[in-house]
Each structure stands twice: as C-alpha cells, then as structure tokens.
C-alpha cells in the first residue's frame, strides 16, 4: 500500500509540474489570438488541481522510491502524461475521438511523431505548438530515462551505463541520482535546442516554425506544422540544418555534456557507438543514392543524394520528417531505411529501436560463437571499447532483442489479423516500436495513421509505448512475479 | 593436404553409391518407355566413374575423418550431389539452364520442394520420379545429419542430442557412429515410407503417384507430379493420409526408432517437442479455420477446416504441398502459416527452420531473464524435459537464431535489391531457408519460382542450402578461422 502511495505522490508532483508546461501554448494562443487559450487554461488548472489533490492525499503515507517501483513509475509517467495531454486536443478539435487523441499524444511523448491529424497547416498555432512541445518534453524524459533510470532497473544491458554522469550511488533510492542527472542533461538539451532554433530561422523558417521543428528535431519526433512535412519548404538549407541536428540528437546526450564540460571532441571519438553510427549512415546514403539514381528516379546523382540524405537520416535516426514521398522509390530504399530505424540510434539519444550498442554487442557475440565452434576450449571475452562485457549483460541484451522481435511479430500479426495488408502492418509496427513515425503503403510518408481503425490505432499506441519504454520495462508489469510481494 | 584427400575419398565413395540410385529412374523409364533411360544410364556411369577415379586417386593419402572436416564434408556432400543430379534434367529437358536445373536439384536434396518447372503433368515419368527420389534421399541425409553429425559438430545447441541412439563415442572419429546410426534410421525411414505408399494407393492414387508423393511426404519435400499439386486429386482421403504422414515426418525419427524398438508410444509422450508441436498445429488450424470462415472465404466451417488443415499442416511442417491457392485467403492465414514454417518442426525430423526445441529454449531463456530482472540474485537453471541446459548450449542456440535471422534479412534485402517486391522477397526467403517450398505473391502456391531472374534463383538456392545445413555449418566455412591451420 505504501508502494502505491509513494507512486501516487510522485505522479501527483509530476502532474503539477507538467501543468506549468501549459504556459507556452497559452502564450502562443494569446499571441496568435487563435481562441484556444481557454482550453489550455482549463487543462492547466485540471492538471495542477488533480496533481495537488493526489500528492496531498498520499503525502503522509509515502516512503522512499525503491528500484522495483521504477518500472511502474516509468510506465505510469508516460501513460498519465499522454492521457492528460489529450484534453486540449479534445476540446480544440471537434469530432476528435479519444482513441485518436491518445494516439497523437502518445506519439508526441514517445517522440514517434506519427500523426492521425490532417490539415496541420490550418490547425490553431497553439495546438501545433502543443504537439511539438510534447515531443520536446518526451525527448528530455527519454534521455533521463536512458542515462539515469534504465541502468538502475537493469533493462536490456543498460546496467553497463551505470554511473555515466553522476557517479555511482550505492543506495537503492533513485531520487538523488535522477535529480542531479536530469539537471545537467536539461541544460545541454536546452542549449542545443536554442542553437537549432537559431539555425532553422537563419535557413529561412519563421520563428514559429523554427521553434516547432527544433522541438521535433531535438526529440527526434518528426511532427511538423505542415501536412507536407519538411517537403513544404523545398529548401536544401533547411534540410541540411535538420540533418545535422537529427544526427546530434541521435548521439548519447551524456557525450554532449562531456564534450561541453571538457571543451573537446574526444568524447565522441572515444565512444563505441558514434563512429559506427556515422559510418553506417554515410554508407547507406551512398548506396541508396546510387541505387535510386541508377533506377532513374531522379535525373542527377546530386538530386538523388539530396533527397536520400534527408529522408534516410530522418528515418534512420527515428525522427520521421519527410521531404518527398519516398514510398514511391523502388522498395529497396524505403525498406533499408526502416531497417536502419531499428539499429542506428545511440544509447542515451532521443531515438528509438534496438540501439547501436546492442547491435554491436550482438554482432560480437555471434562472431564469438562462430569462433568457439571451431575452438571450443578458447576463452574469448567480449569487449565494447575498452570494457569487457560479462555474460550477464550479454544475456540481458539478447533477451531485450528477443523480446523486441517477439513484440514486432505479435503486433504485426495483430494488425494483419485486423485486416491490414502485410506491408502496411509490418512497416507501421516497425515505425511505431522504433518511434520513427511514418511507415509504408497505407501509413506511408504521403498519408498518415488516420485511415486505421480504432483497434489498429490502439495497437500502434501500444507499440510506441513498448518501444519507448525499452520493451521489457513495460512487459515486466504483465508478469505475475512483479505483482507478488 | 591429407585433409582434402580424406574429403575427396569420402566424396568419391558417396558419388559411387549415389550412382546406384539411378537404377530406379532407369527402371521407371524402361517401364513407361519415356525415352529417358539413356540419360540416366549416362548419368549413372559418369557418377560411378568419376567417383571411382576420385576415390582411387585419394585412397592412399587419406586419413581419419576429424570432427572439423565435418563442416566441409557436409556442405560438399549436398552441393556435389545437387550438381551431379542436374545431368539427367539438363539432358532430358531441352532449354533448361544450369541455374534452373541446380535450383531444382538443390530444392530436391534440401527437401524444399520449390520448383521452377511448369508442365509437371506432361513431364517424363522417370524425370518426375528422379525429382521425388532426390527428396527422399535428401530426407534420409537430413535425419542422419541431425541425429548423428550435427551433435558432434556442435551446431546451434545440437550438442544436447549427442548419444541419442548409438550411445556415446568418445573418439573424435565420426565414421563408426554415423554408419551405425544411419543403418537404424534407414530401416525406420524405409518402413514408414512403405506404409505411406500403401495408404496413398488405398486412398485412390495410382502406384506411380503414390510412390512419388510418399517420397515427397517422408522427406517433407512437397514436390508433386502435378502442377496443381495435391489440389489435382480434390480428395479428402488423400489429404488426410498426407496430413498424418507429414506430421510423422515432422517428428524426430529417433523417436520412431525408439517407439518401434520398445513397442510403445511412451517415447512420443516423454519427448519435449512432440506435444508442443501438435498443440501449436491444432490451435493454429482451429484459429485459421475460424478466421477464413468468418471472412466468408468458404460457405461452411467444415470446408474451411478441410482446406486449412491440409495447407497449414503442409506449410507448418515445411512440406509444401498445396491443395488450393491459399495466397488468395485473407493475408493473416498465409503469413501465419509461413510463421509456423519457421518454428514448428522437431529436431531430427526431415523438416526445416529453427525447430521446436530451439523455440522452446528461447522462450524459457526469455522468461528466465524477465524473472531475473526482478530477482537479480536468484539462480534459475533452464530445463527442457528433465535436462538442465548449460549456458554454453543456450548461447549456441541464441547464436543459431541470430544467424538465422541475419541470413533472412540479408537474403531478403538481396532479393528486394534485385527488384522483387517485398512480399515475394520475404516469403520466398522464408520458404527457402525453412525448406518449406511455396512462398506468396510472385512465388505463391498457384505459381512457382520460374519467374525469378538468374540472380534471384541463385539467392534462393543459397537460402535452401543455408537452411538445410543449419546456417552455421555453412557460414563457418566462410570464416578465416576455419581455413587457418
Ligand atoms: K520519430
Ligand atoms: K518442403
């Protein structure tokens, strides 16, 4: 019982703090006079009011947060925030169902950036800002989750990353560590966001669009203020700025902190993930540009290069902006992009998927097994960078990848069962579980998730949450063991 | 050098013995007077002649077969037999390319049963028998491979199955064990084949068709003497007989030997794989029958049940007969069937894919990891049946599954790269690597692999060999470690 009071107290506090974030859309609404301010004020009051009541009722009975409560806290956090954030959308967009509104807010907070809304260009500016702010807040949450919380919870090999920033804390209480880490990362994240806003403005966006798209790029969300996404601007300069900031967001933010702290690029060079990621992306851009140019999609190699570079980086980093309808390209390229979305992003970034470090670990483990078939007695420990990796971590990583794969299969079959074609189903699930955004065919870059039925929408929402919470954090809640005292 | 002479000697002997198998198509050709006897006599002479020369030249320099030579021997065996067996096809079918002929013989010896030939009903009976005989020989080879050879080579956790029939042999020489095991299994295999031929004859097939289809069912090959496959007969009795024998062939033949030896059904009951396999198949038949009946594909549930039962068992056991064009059913069912083809068959059967025991092991390992996240200090060994499974085996199984998955991704992307659509590409690779046979769309049950280009045909041949040699046996040959002294 104390456990749930503790949980209630923390969630109450979070709701109250979250209430403050409504200030930005309220200001926006007043500035643009789009008539939405009332909705946001009501939402703000509800959040702060409910949060205070919840925190007040549970305050006396609360205890310390234990590691094990972390799973429930993390899952409740994302689901509660998404549910609360639907209110302004429901009030501001007549006819929007809760299913669709919840999909949109989950998509925001998980930084998936898949949308069910059509007519974004005509949407009230405050609602558009609200969508993008969710991505930005979600992105910050994800970084803190990856750098400070998951290592303590022991999810999918993230134990390796214990003590990355704030130093080892032997206590099983998680509050002090999270607070300190969050403070440092918040500063780095906000700083890079400001640089991105300024760069986008200089590249030709309006201030409003620059802020929205910077929020989207930093959280690797991929929401846009235009139905045509970044294709609306048809501007190589904007695309180049976004490519740079998407790649920055796909790196570990703990590295950015170290780089700023030391005033040096060495942290990037020494990192095990950054160079493989950049090499993979560069090779893929070259290969795919050549392929679609060779297939006659664009008349010049340079044009191929421009469009492949932007859209491939966007999907590989799990951002999800689109500048052209790449679903019309020969299928090799969009499928390769979806494949990259599974493996490219670094740990501690705002991207999703399996992550580069797990991919590298899996690769090394497989090579070790091939070697040990021929030399059964050889002992051959695995290293990532300079770290030797214990078997315990390797098992945890393999379990993560297996659960990821099982989830993809089960969710894809659910969509096919519900009547969706196989390509839309598989691509939708990959795009959602990797928090990338656009899939192919019926959920491709030129359309969106609007055409899905209610059941299908809920499956996709579940996929986004599963992916964002690194699969196991969520699945563990459904095991009997978790609920046994 | 001695190593290659030993290899040459064994392959020479195998070619000579293989030459004897041409007697059956020669007899068939003479009986039906189809004019192909000359081709088979020439093929027989070439095989025995070349085999004698190879064995004669290398005899003086040969040594014992070492475990490590096993990888090369197994791979050379399947490739050499397939290459040799193309001759009668090339001589007997004017205009057939070597690429296509090799695909057909690899498809036979790996018991995949995918075909590039059209007009099977009009094909010379001896050529049709030849195709089916390859499946039958391949099936026997696979059983011996799984029960006697792979456990010694330590592939994908098969070490567990050491000493299943012939008792532990501590020597690293593999010849005595293989000889004894092969003799016992051959008797069981031949006995069940005779029962299958008799049952098919009683169900209404001609003797010739009964022999061909029994060969196909025992090897889980799926070749047929008719373009319409088993749909040609439109006979529930024949379908029922085939369902029974396909399921028998999908079980471990070491179990059949034990059951005959003990005169009891206990071995099946005690086995870790048989009951899960039957339960999975039964559940899937019920689910899919209901689904396509609910979707209005057939007017009665019984008709749904009949067609689902036959085609689902056929694909799940990696046999590959078809009685209707199930690619026209709502996509959930054919995809579910393809999914089953990956996991359903038992170790030591003539089927392909990951195999039930690895699926069970993977599932238990994942559950153990979920448990150990919440109880990090608990020690919780995995058991299959009564056997505790050491971590070494678990790593080997996980490595197998990872290499399987990597192979599917790489080969599927090769086909998509070559211009095939995603559904045909993925389904073709799954159907080939699982040695199931028909895929979907362009390579679906109503068509075949004829329409593929040369590059695509070679990729599919590679997939069949990879799957049949349990992935790692083949991949290990491409590692530098293997070729280092
Ligand atoms: K995204
Ligand atoms: K087959």
From TrEMBL, chains A, B:
K(+) binds at residues 111-112, 220-221, 435. One of its GO terms (cellular component) is plasma membrane. The chain crosses the membrane at residues 39-59, 71-93, 135-161, 181-200, 237-255, 275-293, 335-354, 393-417, 455-478. It is a multi-pass membrane protein. It comes from the Bacteria. InterPro entries: Cat_transpt, TrkH. It is found in: Cell inner membrane. The keyword Transport applies. Keywords: Cell inner membrane, Cell membrane, Ion transport, Membrane, Metal-binding, Potassium, Potassium transport, Transmembrane, Transmembrane helix, Transport. It holds the Pfam family TrkH. Its main location: membrane. GO terms for molecular function: metal ion binding; potassium:chloride symporter activity. PANTHER family: TRK SYSTEM POTASSIUM UPTAKE PROTEIN TRKG-RELATED. Low-affinity potassium transport system. Interacts with Trk system potassium uptake protein TrkA. Belongs to the TrkH potassium transport family. This is Trk system potassium uptake protein. It comes from Methylomonas koyamae.
């Amino acid at each position: 019982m104390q456990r749930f009071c503790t949980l209630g107290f923390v969630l109450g506090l979070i709701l109250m703090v979250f209430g403050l974030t409504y200030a930005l859309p309220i200001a926006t609404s007043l500035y643009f006079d789009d008539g939405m301010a009332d909705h946001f004020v009501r939402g703000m009051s509800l959040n702060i009011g409910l949060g205070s009541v919840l925190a007040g009722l549970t305050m006396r009975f609360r205890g310390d947060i234990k590691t094990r409560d972390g799973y429930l806290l993390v899952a409740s956090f994302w689901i509660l925030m998404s549910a609360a954030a639907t209110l302004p959308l429901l009030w501001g967009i007549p006819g929007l169902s809760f299913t669709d509104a919840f999909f949109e807010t989950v998509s925001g907070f998980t930084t998936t950036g898949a949308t069910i809304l059509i007519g974004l260009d005509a949407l009230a500016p405050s609602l558009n800002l609200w969508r993008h702010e969710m991505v930005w807040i979600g992105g910050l949450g994800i970084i803190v989750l990856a750098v400070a919380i998951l290592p303590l919870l022991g999810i999918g090999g993230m134990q390796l990353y214990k003590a990355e920033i704030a130093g080892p804390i032997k206590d099983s209480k998680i509050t002090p560590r999270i607070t300190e880490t969050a403070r440092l990362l918040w500063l780095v994240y906000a700083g890079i966001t400001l640089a991105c806003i300024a760069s986008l403005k200089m590249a030709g966006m309006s201030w409003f669009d620059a802020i929205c798209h910077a929020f989207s790029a930093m959280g690797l969300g991929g929401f846009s203020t235009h139905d045509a996404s970044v294709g609306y601007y048809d501007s190589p300069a904007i695309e180049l700025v976004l490519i740079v900031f998407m790649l920055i967001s796909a790196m570990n933010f703990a590295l950015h902190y170290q780089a700023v702290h030391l005033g040096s690029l060495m942290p990037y060079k020494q990192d095990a993930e950054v160079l493989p990621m950049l090499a993979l992306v560069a090779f893929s851009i070259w290969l795919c540009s050549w392929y679609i140019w060779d297939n006659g999609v664009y008349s010049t190699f340079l044009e191929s290069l421009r469009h492949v570079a932007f859209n491939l980086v966007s999907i590989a980093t799990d951002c999800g902006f689109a500048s052209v309808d790449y679903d019309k390209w020969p299928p090799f390229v969009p499928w390769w992009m979806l494949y990259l979305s599974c493996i490219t992003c670094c740990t501690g970034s705002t991207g999703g998927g399996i992550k580069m470090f797990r991919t590298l670990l899996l690769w090394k483990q497989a090579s070790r097994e091939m070697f040990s078939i021929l030399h059964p007695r050889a002992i051959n420990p695995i290293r990532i960078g300079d770290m030797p990796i214990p078997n315990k971590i390797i098992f945890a990583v393999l379990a993560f990848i297996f659960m990821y794969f099982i989830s993809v299969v089960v969710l894809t079959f659910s969509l096919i069962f519900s009547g969706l074609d196989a390509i839309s189903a598989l691509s939708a699930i990959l795009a959602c579980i990797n928090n990338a955004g656009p899939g192919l065919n019926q959920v491709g870059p030129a359309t969106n998730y609007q055409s899905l039925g209610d059941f299908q929408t809920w499956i996709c929402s579940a996929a986004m949450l599963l992916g964002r919470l690194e699969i196991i954090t969520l699945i563990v809640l459904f095991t009997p063991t978790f609920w046994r005292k």
